[in-house]
Amino acid sequence: MHVLLHMAEHAGPMTSEDLGRVMQTNPVVIRRIMAGLREQGLVRSEKGHGGGWSISCDFKDVTLRDIYTALGSPEIFAMGNRSEAPGCLVEEAVNASLDGAFDEAQALLLNRFGKVTLAALSRDFHLRMLARGQTFDPQAVHQA
User: InterPro entries this protein is in (predicted)?
Assistant: First the structure.
């Protein structure tokens, strides 16, 4: 989401190196993320001079759920059931207690993800910039 919103503010394609600088991460991380987005038709890439990543979707039609799916539906919670000691009755009791809570929480989050579009996030970003009296500067966006 973050990468796509930055790309929307930039005229023309952005390289993985450009996006890595803006996102303060390694370009390899950007390429991995973009590969999943490309497979879902959300971005495209062009090689050569003047090439890079471009948006190929309509922000009104793309939800956070779409992005989550495009990224391979990663684990939502860092904390979760463990099965490091199969046969441990304490672990079984804890996991049984938590299963329903984690399932409910994940369903709630995924439902919410399906209701938030990239267009809504972009609008919110622009309203926040206006409220601060700022214009878009990719280097300053991450500063307080």
Answer: Tscrpt_reg_Rrf2, WH-like_DNA-bd_sf, WH_DNA-bd_sf
For residue 63, report the phi and psi dihedrals to the nearest 5 degrees. -105, 165
> Does the reported pTM lie above 0.85?
no
- Helices 27-39 and 16-23 sit at what angle, rounded to 10 degrees? 110
CB 70 within 8 A of CB 39: yes
Residue with tokens 């672990």: 91
d(CA 134, CA 128): 9
pLDDT in tens, 122-142: 999 999 989 988 876 655 555
* Secondary structure percentages of the chain, helix, strand, coil, to 5: 50, 10, 40
Q: Is 22 left (phi over 0), alpha (psi -120 to 50) or beta?
A: alpha
Q: Which of 83, 86, 111, 109 is nearest to 98 (CA)?
A: 83
* Domain range annotation of the chain: 2-132
From first CA to last CA, the distance across the chain in angstroms is 20
Q: Calculate the dihedral angle through the C-alpha atoms of 24, 17, 135, 56, rounding to the nearest 10 degrees.
A: -120
